[in-house]
Amino acid sequence: MNLMTSEKRFNTLNAFYREKFGKKVFKISLNGNFTCPNKDGKSGYGGCIYCTELGSGDFAGDKSLSLQAQFNVVKNMMEEKWNDGLYISYFQANTNTYSDVTSLRKLYYDALKLDDKIVGLSIATRCDALSDDIYDLLEEINQITYLQVELGLQSIHPATSDFMNRGHDLACFDNAVKELRKRNIDVVVHIINGFHIETPSMMMQTVMHLNTLDIQGIKIHLLHIMKHTKLGKLYEEEPFPVLTLEEYVQITCDQLEILNPNIIIHRLTGDAPKDLLIAPLWSLKKFVVMNEIDKELRKRNSYQGNKYKKIDG
């Protein structure tokens, strides 16, 4: 699928949704009050080194509110600008398949009934929180609505996974992708650029590995160092190098150039709460980061997948 334009030289999520649904689509983050298998001892303790206690859900809904109330808060804001938009219910915080199938089925179906303009469901999870009965449930959901499953990977490199306390190996991740694709479920993969123990070449290798898998979307994140995280504590005790804006733009554009041109780009940078962010502070200007990526691709006269065939062979 080629959704690129002269302004956006990569397949944007906005263009994908407009192509698929014919309208602007908003993902509304919901908090299902989950935890993670690397927090409670199943795969490890303490969670990923960069996560706050909200588990990558710093902008998700308030778990003390009902799903309906969480949904309505965001919908009311969106409708001030887009009164004819459509919605995808998005379980974002922590690991959103980490429960029994009966509870998950109720939660997912409830999330689809929050509004008659909901056209799909997005579920963020980990490969070590998936099992045969959960795959079957996801297949069931996929037959009645549009479903995306977001899988965290972050890096293919074992040393990085150990450093971040990821709690699973690459084989587990690869198998999850294969199982989801057997059921024709769209897979969106999260990766992180900026671990100080990785070189730009290592970050490129992560994308090259993803090119060998059947994935439909990618979220490229910048590593945020935040207060109240293990990573933040390490950084404050002994600061280590973080990517500059220029370095991040170069690496991300290099990744886009080798990425399969059919993959949809869901994210090219990330957000961190201003009151929690320690470094890099330039990441607070998200639109600047996006503009610099666009400018760099134009400067190179390049686009997503420009070098894909050369590398893929």
Could you explain how this protein is built, in words?
This protein is of the alpha/beta class and 313 residues long. The strands form 2 sheets. It has a 7-stranded parallel sheet, sandwiched between helices. Strand 5, helix 7 and strand 6 form a beta-alpha-beta unit. Helix 3 packs parallel to helix 4 and helix 9 crosses helix 10. The chain starts with 12 loop residues before the first helix and ends with a helix.
Structural descriptors:
313 residues, alpha/beta, two-stranded antiparallel ribbon
Quick rundown:
This protein is of the alpha/beta class and 313 residues long. Helices cover 38% and strands 17% of the residues.
Please specify the SSE layout and strand pairing.
Layout: H1 13-21, E1 25-30, H2 67-79, E2 86-91, H3 101-112, E3 118-125, H4 132-142, E4 146-154, H5 158-164, H6 170-182, E5 186-193, H7 200-210, E6 217-222, E7 225-226, H8 230-237, H9 245-258, E8 264-267, E9 277-279, H10 286-300, H11 308-312
Parallel strand pairs: 1-2, 2-3, 3-4, 4-5, 5-6, 6-8
Antiparallel strand pairs: 7-9
Helix pairs in contact: 3-4, 7-9, 9-10
